[in-house]
Amino acid sequence: MDINKWKSLAVRKEDHTKLCAIAKSKRRGPGAQFSKILDEYIKVMAKRKNQTVEAYVKSLLNGSAK
Question: What Rg value do the Cα atoms of the chain yield, rounded?
């Protein structure tokens, strides 16, 4: 597996069970569901900060998002 493309993430078993249940109801895999939840969160936060999604992500990656 390419370590530059894929990373592991440890979550509580309870949260994993919930994620899998949500994913199953939407006919997605847990990884795809996690990505969708993350993308939606970023969109909401960018809107809240009156920034474009790209600008908000850049500020996150630079460590300047508050």
Answer: 14
**For residue 39, how many C-alpha atoms fall within 13 Å in the half-sphere facing its CB?**
6
**Which stretches of the chain drop beneath a pLDDT of 50?**
none
Give the pLDDT of residue 23.
96
Name, in order, each residue with C-beta under 8 angstroms of 60's C-beta and a sequence gap of 6 or more. Answer: 42
Question: pTM for the full model?
Answer: 0.82
How would DSSP label each residue in 18-58? Answer: HHHHHHHHTT--HHHHHHHHHHHHHHHHHHHTT--HHHHHH
